[in-house]
What does this fold into?
Amino acid sequence: MKTERGGKMKQIDPGPDKIFYDGKIVTVDKDFSIEEAVAIKKDRFVAIGSSKEVLALAGSGTERMDLGGKTVVPGFIDTHPHLANAGPRSKGPSLKGLKSIEEIKRLVKGLAGVPLK
It folds into this structure.
């Protein structure tokens, strides 16, 4: 089992804030190893290993989450929130079905009241 510093597992007092166990934790380490459980304290990973090893670190206030065999992949961040832009986009002309720059120009000119040539 690995700890934050790669050493032997030690009892954390009063224990981690959260433990996720009975899952497939993709560690994204150099070997992309898969572990069963992870312990988190103050938004930091503090231990990872088997469910038995990591659950042994739990304190009375530790929240435990049974993953039921589901996979956890850390690090995904959505950098382009589509919903935030959906409202402003709906106010403009739809380009759906247009197949060329010329078709887009005709649409924009028509909406602007510019005579088409």
Remarks:
- The first strand starts at residue 2 and ends at 3.
- The CA atoms of residues 59 and 94 lie 56 Å apart.
- The helical segments are 51-55, 82-90, 101-112.
- The chain has a mean pLDDT of 82.
